[in-house]
Amino acid sequence: MSELSEARMMRIVDELSEAAERVGLEVRREKIMREIGYRTRGGACRLRDKNLVIIDRDQPAAEQLEVIAEALRLHDLESLYLSPAARRVVHVGDTAS
Fold this sequence. Notes:
Layout: H1 6-22, E1 26-30, E2 42-47, E3 50-56, H2 61-72, H3 84-92
Parallel strand pairs: 1-3
Antiparallel strand pairs: 2-3
Helix pairs in contact: 1-2
């Protein structure tokens, strides 16, 4: 992922956010509060009847990309169109493929 520019990574984050919505995940970009010695990352969770992906909007693009990709690895994306770059990002950490 390091060979991608920050702007390109953010475009892929946006593309993967749209894909997440299509598989039933609500993507929220939030400002996650931090305290000294406490590092938050965001990720997938369930709140009441909603499946969410929380992304810390203040994280660098590479970290946002990893959070959304990690959440999508748990879903079947074969029927969705993803650009080759976005598909590569999702499959980088996918041990099932």
